[in-house]
Design brief:
Blueprint (H helix, E strand, L loop, with lengths): L16 H11 L2 H8 L6 H12 L17 E3 L2 E3 L3 E3 L12 H11 L5 E3 L6 H5 L7 E4 L5 H14 L4 E4 L8 H6 L26 H5 L6 H10 L4 E6 L2 H9 L4 E4 L13 H12 L5 E4 L5 H9 L4 E4 L1 H32 L18
Parallel strand pairs: 3-10, 4-5, 5-6, 6-7, 7-8, 8-9, 9-10
Antiparallel strand pairs: 1-2
Helix pairs in contact: 1-13, 4-13, 10-11, 12-13
Amino acid sequence: MSAPLAFTPIPDGIVCVPDYEQAARERMGENAWAYVGGGAGDELTLRENRAGFDRLRLNARVLVPMGAAHTRLRLLGQDLEHPILVAPSAFHRLVHPDGEAATMLGASATRSCMVVSAQASLPIEAIAAQASVRPWFQLYIQPDRGFTLALVRRAEAAGYVALVVTVDAPISLRNREQRVGFRLPPGVEAVNLRGAAQPTVPEGASEIFGAVQATAGWEDIAALRAATRLPLLLKGIMVPEDAERAIAEGADGIIVSNHGGRVLDTQPAAIDALPAIARQVAGRVPVLLDGGIRRGTDVLKARALGAQAVLVGRPVLHGLAVAGAMGVAHVLKLLRTELEAAMVQTGCPTLDAIGPQVIWRGP
């Protein structure tokens, strides 16, 4: 961005990530809130993502030496300070005028890796220029496969170090957005998708089936794997069979995700789907988790059940809406601080020490 980024103080009384949600709600109109906060259908999966973590209990351990404790990890060849990544989400300028530039600045201040969406409201090159930790790039495979490849080449040239392909959202019906008649406000658009061909529904075809005629298939994943040297992750995997196929097609990582409850309602919580997928993958590639993270204890639980790292979506947008880059940094710092506290209290000096033993299984 050409203009300096705005810095907004964090409001008094915000001491944890959930505090940001109500503060963000107060600052957003109905249009933006429906987009950021809403899910598919009756939003059962949206709520289940949170409930899944709430059902899990932890085992406290005492008198464990913590003198060399840390949260560092190596993921897909990249050294990270902690396992909390910023999830890809679209249109950050919908909630703050500085958009993804502020989000990246907040992520960089906390040494966090950000996954930048192809539907970002700023050019991906400008966003990457704010990074102190090399970012990852998320994309949907476009109907025009040539446009998709050109977007990948832009990401490579801008210094992105991994490619995240979202595979679970060929269509979605979000009633909360429908009720408010959601529209992007003037000046907010997916600038990196300008010129991309839009799918057309053949005359007389089903509105749904006609719209998904050009969506991606497994052959597109194989073609993309052959076209780039970047590590390739598939986001939106919820069953072991799809995880196995992803690895067979060359995926370097799996992201267990139900798209934050925004695509297919009545799916299980992402955290509940994680253990079976982790068992199927059996350490061949990293498994990450997206969906429902609100506390550092959630990060610990995800690690215990087989995830190497987690992605955080809505809370980052809440922080951005409330206090711009400062809010983003504060959200990420709160999560890391709580993770460290939970590691101490469960006797885990490193991430590798976190395993199934930290989950309480009952008497």
